[in-house]
Amino acid sequence: MYTIDNGSTFSVSEVSQSELPMFESGICTHVFLEDRVSPSGDPFFTANVLNDKTGKSSKFLIDRRDYSELQSSNLIGLRVNFEIRSNGLKIKRLEFQPKETIKFLENLKPHNQKETIPDESNENNFERDLHKSKNFIEDLVISFTQRAHDLGLPTFIGVCIPEKK
């Protein structure tokens, strides 16, 4: 028997401790997509797994650096492999998962993903953004010059030098 400062007593058998899961694979039953951050600053999700040998359910971590949100949400119903760590289970990286799981997760694509040619798309986006930036700066200089003149402040000369062609 142990006594706490407030006078309550308890025995060791009354204190419940969760049993550390010691299995290397199971079926994912639920994924919690709330963003969490470890004490070291690494983002992760949590999920539930069913040990198909014992029928017990347990929690495990999904490292966000190894699995996207889309991949994580699609783990439900798949067999996954774990690292057994001193503080619980953590899903192994994708290359260490069963072949069926790897194949399924690698074939996932977001619904809004379009097939594009990256080089042309990036070049067009860069040129468009550069043009927008130039126009913004020119408008800013013109507005500032006009406002300074309207307020009677010492003249601010706005000069935009055209690019060389």
Can you characterise this structure?
The protein is an alpha+beta fold. It folds into two domains: 105 residues, Beta Barrel (OB fold (Dihydrolipoamide Acetyltransferase, E2P)), CATH 2.40.50; 40 residues, no CATH class. The protein is built from three helices and seven strands, in the order βββββαββαα. It has a five-stranded mixed β-barrel with strand order 3-4-5-7-6. The chain has a two-stranded antiparallel ribbon with strand order 1-2. β3 and β4 form a beta hairpin. The radius of gyration is 29 Å and the shape is elongated.
Topology:
Blueprint: E1 2-3, E2 9-10, E3 25-37, E4 43-50, E5 57-63, H1 69-73, E6 79-85, E7 88-91, H2 99-106, H3 118-150
Parallel strand pairs: 5-7
Antiparallel strand pairs: 1-2, 3-4, 3-6, 4-5, 6-7
